[in-house]
Amino acid sequence: MAATDEQWMQHALNLADRAEREDDEVPVGALIVDKAGELIAEAWNRNISRHDPSAHAEILAMRLAGEKLQNHRLIGCTLYITLEPCAMCAMAMIHARIKRVVFGAYDPKTGAAGSVFDLLQDPRHNHRIEVQGGVLAEIAGKKLSDYFRAKRQKANPSLP
């Protein structure tokens, strides 16, 4: 499973590159693989360009997957995301009945898959999601750090 997870995460990282390059968005990419292991949806952050606080990569990917499957339930699907999901996205994953979430970088400020909150495994929900964090975390984390460093330097050129 580890090799497959890394392959899909590399694809998600490529989507994160597109977020930054094509839309000047925070570089987060997501994709969904069905229970047969086929790619059914992919997306990247678009909340800034769409002026939509809910347009996170994983929300957009779930919307596309639901359309493709013609179902609001994504039973048996695995969601790959380059950054640990926030609370909004985690709850959407629970409602969609995602089977498994694999993420790259941990988010120590708003992570909802174990870092700050553990919504995906909370026993109070009627559905719990298998979680694998830290897949290609160094690459995903560096991509985010570099993006924000460049934004700060552009805003204030005297910063290192």
Task: Give a written overview of the molecule.
- With 160 residues, the protein is an alpha/beta fold.
- Helix content is 40%, strand content 16%.
- The chain has four helices and five strands; from the N terminus they run αββαβαββα.
- Strands 2-1-3-4-5 form a five-stranded mixed sheet.
- Strand 3 (78-83), helix 3 (87-96) and strand 4 (100-105) form a beta-alpha-beta unit.
- It starts with a helix and ends in a 5-residue tail after the last helix.
- The mean pLDDT is 96.
Report the total helices.
4
SSE ordering: HEEHEHEEH
Q: What is the radius of gyration computed over CA atoms, rounded to a whole number of angstroms?
A: 15 Å
Q: Ranges with pLDDT <50 over ≥5 residues? A: none
CA-based shape? globular
Biggest beta-sheet profile: 5 strands, mixed
- What is the CA-CA span between the terminal residues? 40 Å
Widest sheet, order of strands: 2-1-3-4-5
The tally of strands reads 5
Q: What fraction of residues sit in β-strands?
A: 15-25%
Helix content bin: 40-55%
The residue-averaged pLDDT reads: 96
Query: What structural class do you assign from the helix and strand content?
Result: alpha/beta
